[in-house]
């Protein structure tokens, strides 16, 4: 006889079904909240990356000056023409306006006044000074003058320094020892080398002032008849900098720390032989606007605050810097901020905004405060220090007070 198995099925109650629905609804709500959070974080990250990309493009390809134009943000870099083009727009009519620009008097004379002048005169010979009409003698009544610029090509020549040695005839015949005297002669720039002071200065100035690489200087000298390798020129420059320019550098350092104001800043330097992730630093120090400027560079492998502290050990004036905390290690100085760096923070925010952004932001108002201060400073630039201080209290201080009040509520 076949045995049958009974399966019992329990029907959930209404309460159990409601509880199950509540759990599913809660799980669904949690998933939606998690998805919304991830979406918000992703959009924020994308916006941040886009802002950084726009800021990077602006720094790499845009103009270096930070000019604030009210109501206008920077256009996209490459597609401005395609975006602004309207092929259905009719061509504008052209109105031609002609005028004569007044020529500045004395501009050519001012340009030529510091140059040496070579004068070539053209006269008639005595035989030619005869009137073609009556045969009488001619006399000079006036002159006609024209000027032209003449370029004298550079030349390289050998200078032989011949030093004469003298001795006493009488002592040569009668004395046991003969005194010998040698004429004085300037010491060479490089002992045993061919480099003269003018040659070494020319190579250095062509390299660092005119931006002419050594291989081009090598070719140029070859055309002048001198075969001088770029390796030799490099050796001369290194020796000259170490032996002679280091003394000038030390003297400049002695002078710069005696000033009342020094501006300092640092920038990264990627040098050959070091990994791409490593950064070296060039620290720049310069004097203020009073007197001849002194500008110095100090190479260091790190950005540590000990670097400016060591360089400015003898300085006791005002040190104008950006917001880098490393400068706080410099002792016996009064730190002052830099408005150019402060203004740059607002311009960086505006540059990072999308091109079509018309939403007003606080950075626009902050930039306007900075621009107002800069306009005042341009007007006061030519004043004496005492007068400038007085006008700053009258004109700049109210703007600064308003700026500070605005910052406190942001």
From TrEMBL:
Pfam families: DDE_Tnp_IS66, LZ_Tnp_IS66, zf-IS66. Residues 14-41 form a coiled coil. The keyword Cell inner membrane does not apply. Keywords: Coiled coil. InterPro entries: Transposase-related, Transposase_IS66_central, Transposase_TnpC_homeodom, Znf_dom_IS66. Residues 193-408 form the Transposase IS66 central domain. Residues 128-172 form the Transposase IS66 zinc-finger binding domain. Residues 48-120 form the Transposase TnpC homeodomain domain. This is Transposase. It comes from Mesobacillus persicus.
